[in-house]
Structure formats: structure tokens, C-alpha cells
């Protein structure tokens, strides 16, 4: 699942109508009158409005007030008709706006705790706990605002998230949508300017992006600033998706977009690239956040933020080593059953399995994934009686391996983004489809959107729960026999699971044990069978996004342990569908809360 790119509204929303009025008769490339940003309430006004409300009304109204502070999230969720965020605005990522947001979140948390939890219904109590957990984490974030790498080579960055917002999230259904898209292009420079201010403040505090990350992201930014405006993703996406434009509208809007990219967007990227170039000589060469001011506490915070339970780096490191040992034993048994030569390393056996499975041509990647998903959907009834109403589609492109949830207004289905510009190893495709679509992310997050619950519980995601569920779904598919005719595919599943176990070791190795980049790369190669380039790509991700990668295996193991606890307690009365219903029917929950809520649902002591 893709990360949320908004700094002012840091919820994992998977995981981002009114017509912009132009000057009458305008049909040239002159800029329309600048839209006035809708007024947002102050913290005092928020308190005054929310204080008298009963619990349910308070939760709904307060979350919408906070959500309005992130126009990109409102657009992604398809709530523009409901929540006025203007038609041409991007998220404000300035330090001042972030401080105002935290103040309002603090007010909401204070008022939430003013409600008598004991007097609430059970459903309301779960809502209380979820909302409190999320708001408290946002307050804890404030201590570490200087440590987060706003610009980095991953989608978990302002640059990566904003590009995805324009190319794949922002709707382009009619001329009004294009007007909004073009208007938002005019705000890119302002947003990147705010990021530059933050980077300078972080630099003064002794925080710079490590050199290995800088040397990847700076050329990316520089390239975008110097290429032809028509080749930039911002213009190319509009041209590709705006095929309905015609006549004067097409000439005017495409002309205006080209002008904005050339005169505003690209210069802003060039300025950001220059700042990073200036920072590079003094940037650290090591990867880990241990070297940052308050780095040890920051890493502990990121682990709790993503795992959503109290864990230590040492516990996670050892857990990863134990799981890898068990998974390697499973792999070797599969290698023997497949007739592979004895005595080969794990990496050699996985390479042999990949070669035996062959590749799918780039032109067939999307159709192959689509078929896998259709076959999985046809078998969901074996283990589920809750399925999402929204469809899921496979979107081919240069980058892949992530999922974006559907919009709440039904205008956009769930989307599994698949890399479709090169051949793909067949033996790993089933597992990736199960993780990103069904029974993984699309099933869980799509069901959540359909629930009769407060908005906060339908759209906020917690990494331990969401990524834990998707990894749980990979193994569940094997348990249900979905790999019965695909022994090599099951080896691919084991490689994917070993990959998540290795993440526990490498993430904590980098940020807690002070591993070098070379150490981390070698570990991934030896234990997961990745090429040096693929292993380095993963190491760069963990360095840029500390702690996130530890949530997958941790969450999956807790779900499996919870299921076994239910099975042991209920014996022959255990029902797999009932267990899954209990997990899915509450939306995404922090792991420590999920275990408690599901146990109560199923009558466990």
C-alpha cells in the first residue's frame, strides 16, 4: 500500500466537483484569478464548535475539521463535494501550518477525553480508543518533526507523494477537473518552497539526508527540472488522461499546463536540487537515524508508530532472525521436492526457482495480474463472508508494487499498481497480487470503507494492521490451497515472506546496530536471494523510512497467533470466516487494540 504523502495530516489513508470559476469567456493561456483558500477554523473556534457535541457527532465533525487541513487527502478520498478545500490547493507543509494542525489535534484529543468512555456503547468505546491512539501519536510526532526526511527517493516523501497525486490520484473526468489540476500545478512551487524552508531548519539542527540517499534523489529532481516540459509526469499525465479535451478548452488548458510546468514547477525542482547539492558535502555517509539528534528515541518512536504496539529494536531484530531460520528450512524442503541440487545456498535455490518459473513479457503483466485477481475473487467465499463493494483494477506503469484504495464517492476503484515496462518473474506474481489486492489490501481497506462506522475508522489505516493483514493474506492463500498447482509460485511466496523477515533484521541493523550500507545489502542478498541492485533499493527505502518495514512481519505474526488462540479456545467450533469477520469488521486498528477487540468479539477469556 502506498504511503500517505501529507505532512500536515499524517494518517495512513491509503495509505489522498465544484467548478473553478474562470473569467467569463477566457480562452487564452492567461492565468485565471487566483482562488482564495477556504478559511479554516482556529483552535479556539474548533474547541467552541466541538465542546457541546454528543460523542458520535463530535467524532464525525472533529475528524472532518482535521481532514479539511489536507486538500490532497480530501481529493484522494473523493470528499470534495462534502468538504470545502477549494479547487486548486495542495497541502500546506509549512512548519507554521503543521504547528497549527498539532494544536487543533491536541484540542480534539482533550475534548475526546472529556467524554465518559464508560458511558459509551462498545462500538463507541472502540471508536474512542482508535481515535485517541491516532491523536496521541500525532502529538508524539511533534517531538521528532526535525528528523523526518521530507525529501527522499521513495513514495514516502513530499516529492514522491506529490508526483503520484498528480499522475494517478487527481481525478481527470471533465473540464472542471482539468481546471483544478492546472490550478494545482500553479501551487507546486509554493509547496516545494515550504519544503526548502524545512530542510534549512533541519540543517541548522544538524539533520541532513544521508549522502547515499541524496545521490539518488538529487539527480531525480534535477532531471525533472531540465527535461522537456511535455516529458514531465505532470504534463504527460494530463495529456494521457485528458483525451476528452477538445477545441479551445484543449488548447487553453494544455497551453497553461505547459507554461506552469516550464516557468514554475521546473524552476522549483531546480531550486530544491541546488539546495540538496549544497548540503551533500556535509551530509553523513552512514544511513542510520542513530546519528541524528535524539536519534535513538526517534527510532523507538518510529517503531511504535508503524508497528502500533510497544516493541524494541532488539526484540524485532531477534524475531527476524528466528523467522528467517524457519523460512529457510521451509525453502530447503521445497527445493528438495522440486529436485534442485543439494547443498546450494538459499540465494542459489531461489535463483533456480525464478529461472524455472520463467518470466511474463511486459505486454502481458497487467493481464496476468488481472487474471490472478479474478481467480482469487472467485474463491474468496472459502474464507470470507465480507467482501468490498468497490472494484479493483491493475494499473501498469514504470513503478509498481503498491495499492491505492478506492475513493469514497465511487469515482475511482481500488488500484494495484504493477511495474509493466519490463518482464516480470512469474513465480512471484501470485503472491504480490494476493498482498496488494485480494485477499490483501483491497479486501481489507475496501471492506473498511463499506462499514457503518465513523469516517475516521473507515479511512485511517495503521501500518501494523494493514501491512500485517496483507502479509497474513499471502500465507492464507497457501493454506487455502491456492498454490496447489503452482509449486514454484509457493517458493515465490516463501521468498516474499523471508523478505519481510529480513526487513526486521536490516531495518534494525541500520538504525539501531549501526550497520553499513554494504552489510545491509549483503544480508538481503544472502537471505532473500535479491540481486545487489534490488537489495540496495530496499536498503535505501529502510534508510529513508525508518521503522515502516518492521510492521509487516510483526503484524502478520500477531494475526496468526491470535487466530491460533481462537482456534485453540473454540476447538471444533472454530470458524475461519467468523475470525476474519471479527478482524475486518472494525476497520484498521492498532495491533494492541486489534488483539483485544477481536478476542472480545469471539468470546475469548
TrEMBL record:
Q: Where is the signal peptide?
A: 1-30
Q: Which UniProt keywords apply?
A: Signal
Keyword hit for Signal: yes
* InterPro entries noted in UniProt: DUF885 (IPR010281)
The UniProt entry, under Pfam families, shows: DUF885
Q: Please tell me whether the keyword Ribonucleoprotein is annotated for this protein.
A: no
**Where on the tree of life does the source sit, at the highest rank?**
Bacteria
Q: What is the protein's given name?
A: DUF885 domain-containing protein
Source organism (scientific name): Hyalangium rubrum
